[in-house]
Amino acid sequence: YAAGDLPKLMQPLAINILGVSLQLSFLTCYWYYATEKDDLVSCRRAFFGGAFIVVVAFAVCESMHSFEPFGDFAMVMNIIMYYSPLAAFATVVREKSVARMPLAPLVLTLVCSLLWLTYGYMIRDVPIMTPNACGVLLGIAQLSVYAYFSIYYGTKRPDDVEANATAEANEQQRLINSA
Questions:
Q1: CA–CA distances in Å: residue 60 to residues 36, 46, 53, 69, 73
Q2: pLDDT tier at 4, thresholds 50, 70, 90
Q3: Where are the domains of the chain?
Q4: Which CATH number fits domain 67-156: 3.40.50.300, 1.20.1280.290, 2.102.10.10, 3.40.50.800?
Q5: What whole-number distance in Å separates Cα of residue 101 and Cα of residue 90?
Q6: What is its main location (predicted)?
Q7: What predicted TM-score, i.e. pTM, was given to this entire model?
Q8: Nearest Cα to 98, choosing from 108, 83, 88?
């Protein structure tokens, strides 16, 4: 188990610090350039909600004199993060388009999960392997959904999807009015 071996922990720690820094920079840029009120509200909630969770987690771990629950919480959050692109699944099915489900993040998440799973296996660290095994399985599921809809329905731009939805709504309204 890597927790007792500081050199084994330094690499994941450094990589995760870099990851958090990149995520915070993305959130900051998104917040700065967001024009819609809903986007600004969502961004604030994500930022302050995340900060609140980290502070509470540290307080709980300090009171228990152990940071193991913090690692368990991080594992659960990783699994949720790997699952989150499937939230676009309903939109993909409804629009019969993968336009709102970008391929690059799906592929990169799968590759990242595979690399971390391999690393966890090599150092025999179950807390690293567990969320990344879920990430591999969910990544395969997400890419399968993407492949299915790309093959059978093609890829449509979001503009095309919205234009088709508007045209269908107008046609339905015309039929209702003519009846």
A1: 36, 21, 10, 8, 11
A2: low
A3: 14-65, 67-156
A4: 1.20.1280.290
A5: 11
A6: membrane
A7: 0.65
A8: 88
